[in-house]
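Key result, reporting period 2: structure in, sequence out.
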């Protein structure tokens, strides 16, 4: 029993040092809509990794699994994003939203209550995000339905 505990303690000490293996996504999975005109862009594997990291650090607290904790009726799934006004189902639109968010109908600014570049004085996590960072986060949001399927933005039944 003591030998087993010793072996397990060594294993757990070594785990952080072991390299993490990420699933390499194919080009089709990494290709998303770039703008409302239908142009497409393919994210690099580095953009995908950075987008996930930045999303988890900056957005993940309120948008776990593509949900919106403050309004579960509006998720980050492609259908919800495409039905927003203006449509937010492309990189350019999501970047614009992260800079200056509006209500789902697009009529009012919600920058004072939703983290954004415009309200970086209130939401410090947004202060250091560059245009490339915002694009990586948008890419992460847009590839998740391809990876997680209906689980992304799918509600409490999944998370």
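The corresponding designed sequence is given below.
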């Amino acid at each position: 029993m003591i030998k087993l505990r010793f072996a397990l303690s060594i294993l757990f000490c070594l785990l952080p040092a072991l390299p993490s293996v990420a699933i390499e996504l194919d080009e089709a999975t990494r290709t998303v809509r770039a703008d409302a005109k239908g142009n497409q862009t393919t994210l690099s594997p580095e953009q995908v990794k950075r987008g996930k990291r930045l999303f988890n650090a900056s957005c993940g607290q309120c948008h776990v699994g593509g949900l919106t904790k403050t309004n579960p009726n509006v998720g980050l799934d492609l259908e919800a994003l495409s039905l927003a006004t203006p449509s937010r189902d492309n990189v350019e639109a999501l970047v614009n939203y992260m800079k200056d968010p509006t209500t789902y109908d697009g009529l009012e600014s919600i920058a004072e209550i939703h983290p954004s570049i415009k309200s970086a004085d209130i939401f410090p996590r947004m202060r250091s995000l560059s245009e490339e960072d915002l694009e990586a986060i948008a890419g992460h949001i847009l590839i998740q339905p391809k990876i997680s399927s209906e689980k992304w933005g799918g509600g409490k039944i999944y998370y």
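The longest strand covers residues 31-33. The first helix runs from residue 2 to 14. This case is discussed further under Risks and Mitigation.
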